[in-house]
Design brief:
alpha+beta; Pnp Oxidase, Chain A; 4 helices; single chain; two-stranded antiparallel sheet
Length: 185
């Protein structure tokens, strides 16, 4: 799913960032947190194999879907094959979203709900996202040579996951604090 344009900044309090539906025991992400997730951020994915051997990768953009109950990640298979191989239905996944301009960071843990080839529109979204990220990084003094490894192509996979826990990871007081927890997590 390609995201709609969103703007917003996460307030220092991070509250409220989710709304909880007690009947369904799910939470959805509000517009402020969505602005961070779908904004210009560096996205690191952590997965593990059946032997608990970790693998990391980068997502080229993210999009909220299912009314904020799930998040789509766009991951280049060629660059991150182990991460993709581990992203099977039901597998645990941990994702950090970090704004390069101020290091505002959150970590979301959950389980994979879908894993499939990205659509043409999703590939185009990832290319556009990548250009925006590169421009921000270059504006911060990072050379294009240092970020040329960030790439996307026709091998892009869409990995969808359902958030179960959200943590503040911005350096400083409160880093590591749980922001939200799904009732079944």
């Amino acid at each position: 799913m390609v995201p709609k344009a969103r703007m917003g900044f996460l307030k220092e309090s991070y509250s409220p960032i989710v709304s909880e539906d007690q009947g369904a025991q799910m939470f959805t992400i509000d517009d402020e947190l969505a602005g961070l997730i779908e904004g210009i951020v560096m996205i690191i994915i952590g997965t593990r194999d059946d032997n608990f051997r970790p693998a990391i990768g980068r997502s080229i953009g993210a999009a909220l879907c299912n009314n904020g109950e799930a998040i789509d990640l766009f991951v280049p298979t060629v660059q991150w094959p182990e991460t993709i191989d581990n992203a099977v239905l039901g597998a645990p996944i941990s994702v950090t979203f970090s704004r390069p301009t101020n290091y505002e960071t959150i970590q979301i843990k959950g389980n994979v709900t879908k894993h499939e080839s990205a659509s043409f529109d999703e590939i185009e979204y990832a290319k556009s996202y990548l250009n925006r990220v590169r421009n921000v990084l270059v504006g911060l003094g990072v050379s294009r040579k240092q970020i040329e490894f960030l790439a996307t192509g026709p091998d892009l996979r869409r990995v969808q996951f359902r958030p179960e826990q959200i943590f503040r990871q911005t350096p400083g007081p409160g880093a590591g604090a749980r922001i939200a927890k799904h009732h079944n997590a």
